[in-house]
Fold this sequence. Notes:
- This protein is mainly α and 138 residues long.
- It has 6 helices and no strands.
- It has one domain.
- It is 67% helix and 0% strand.
- Helix 5 (95-101) runs antiparallel to helix 6 (107-129).
- It is globular and about 40 Å long.
Amino acid sequence: MRTRGGLLIANVIAGLALGFTVANIGFGDFAELNRMFTFQDLRMLGAFAGGVALVVVVFALIRVRRSPGRIHKGVIPGAVLFGGGWALSGGCPAIPIVQVASGYVPALVTIGGIVVGTWLCRWVNARYLRVDVGSCGR
């Protein structure tokens, strides 16, 4: 699995499994996301909390250590924009792909917004902000 082809196949299989799971449990549904963001139904929020808890346990088991550092000055505004876009569109970057694969064609608008927003962010940063984005912006 160390070849590029093997890694690609593994990623495609993992992506298909994730998409299938997300679609079948209803997390690709805008109404479900809306209920989570308005705290009407905590099932999805509980799933995210469970996922974070699982990662914490796995990282502890394999002894992943990350030294705490300063928060990058772009993290807070980026998180606010990401969360706001997610709440408005009903999808983080992966969910619209699941929605389109499930036949929900309006999610193409969200995918277009992600592409334009990413381009616009890089353009504004390069032209005006000049914030070091590290490996994330390359």
